[in-house]
């Protein structure tokens, strides 16, 4: 028995209720095995990475204040594995962040690693592989943290639905990796399918043939693995729809026929509620929206998800909002909603800029101690196509930074830090004049408890007139998104920063040829990745590493550092 009311009463008397904050908090234990397995995510059989025979991996459900203990055993035969808990800040446990070469060594085949960390804050999160391109291989799942027992969300809902969005290729991830690292360069192309909770329907143009054959008679007939997940609701209720995107590449837009959505959460933080007809979501982001089932209950409604920001060659994903007791097999009367055209950036910007922190949320410090401007460019290194940040393309060392810094090893990565800025004469509107970049494993050392501004500066890629969207994700901290601008960030632009109610997030996008300004308080000792969440872009070097206060990091479990130069240390 846990904390019964008797115990609570007793403790209130004895300890004057000092234990109040941990009331009901508990440790939740999981034993997971990562495996390759056959699966038909989009009705075509392939191998995927799964956990305990499940794809996507099991959903973790916890309460704020709980401690999660995940014993992860690598059952792959020839490759290492790690899992990152995306959106969990890992306060005080940087070794549990699950980033290979940064926070820990990859777990070898046959070995087990114990992740133990606290989920301190409610919200919609997910987890995924963070070694090579294992996230693209299907290693992901949902992580949902409910409010602690005595707490309430600042909004009401009667039920909840969870959507984990991803994209899927028929080419194996190994082949994708080799293509990206070959001369000539071979791009992975657009995904074959979009998946909702791991299910999609390749080549089953439900949209076109929505009435004949009906949705459930498409190719997936008889194949439960790729049958769309129907969302069952009751009329006249309010549902919280949790939506997270772990796509490898695709930026998405989601629309529900005949229903508005009220956005209330972004990346685990409350936002000032606002209503939309459709919602943009980039890889690494999560949202909660409230949906009121106030439409004709004798009907069902399409949910459609389409690709944004890249010319879509991928059919949209469809599923059905099913008003019970109406039969789930009843096809909606009209065509699925059309998500906005892929290149309607004004639509995307309008959505992104309407996200503000919920009134009363903590405000950012008014000034910062340091500004780091990061120019995002596409380059070449010895003929290989790369992404670079201030002309350095990130390569990860074999010894995890966390161990190197903790033990003062200085021959395990580049000791020279990458620059805080880029050449001011660089023309962001054109391909780089000098396309040669360099590989580097240097890190940004940030003084503990300082406030840092990061300006992400987008630019032209290698091809003329191309500038892409990049969703940047920070580990270990949330940041305030202070603003977005067009063209080059220039001195004085900081006057436009929103210091009143900027949203706190862990992922923010840069639009083509634009900049995005972030501010965070570097108060969580550790070594933290900050990178584009597009899997092939990170693979091609699009990231940086922030290190702060590593001397303040507690005892790192030895198994986290059993490789490279920290391999035989007795810490
Ligand atoms: Cu979800 Cu470093 O990523
Ligand atoms: Cu990118």
Automatic annotation (TrEMBL):
Pathway in which this enzyme or protein is active: Cofactor degradation; L-ascorbate degradation
Cellular localization per UniProt: Secreted
Cited PROSITE patterns: MULTICOPPER_OXIDASE1, MULTICOPPER_OXIDASE2
InterPro entries according to UniProt: Cu-oxidase-like_N, Cu-oxidase_2nd, Cu-oxidase_C, Cu-oxidase_fam, Cu_oxidase_CS, Cu_oxidase_Cu_BS, Cupredoxin, CuRO_1_AAO
Main location per the UniProt record: secreted
Entry's Gene Ontology BP terms: negative regulation of defense response to virus; response to hydrogen peroxide; response to virus
Keywords tagged on the record: Copper, Disulfide bond, Glycoprotein, Metal-binding, Oxidoreductase, Repeat, Secreted, Signal
Residue span, Plastocyanin-like domain: 35-146, 162-325, 434-547
Annotated signal peptide: 1-24
MF annotations from Gene Ontology: copper ion binding; L-ascorbate oxidase activity
CDD domains: CuRO_1_AAO (cd13845), CuRO_3_AAO (cd13893)
Cofactor(s) the record lists: Cu cation
Presence of the UniProt keyword Chaperone in the record: no
Database matches in SUPFAM superfamilies: Cupredoxins
Database matches in NCBIfam families: ascorbase
Assembly information from the UniProt record: Dimer.
Chain's role: Ascorbate oxidase involved in a redox system involving ascorbic acid (AsA). The oxidation of AsA represses responses to high salinity and oxidative stress conditions such as vegetative growth and seed production reductions. Negative regulator of defense responses toward incompatible Turnip mosaic virus (TuMV strain UK1) by preventing jasmonic acid (JA)- dependent accumulation of ascorbic acid (AsA, AS) and dehydroascobic acid (DHA). May be involved in a redox system involving ascorbic acid.
Family: Belongs to the multicopper oxidase family.
Protein name per its UniProtKB record: L-ascorbate oxidase
Organism name: Hibiscus syriacus (Rose of Sharon)
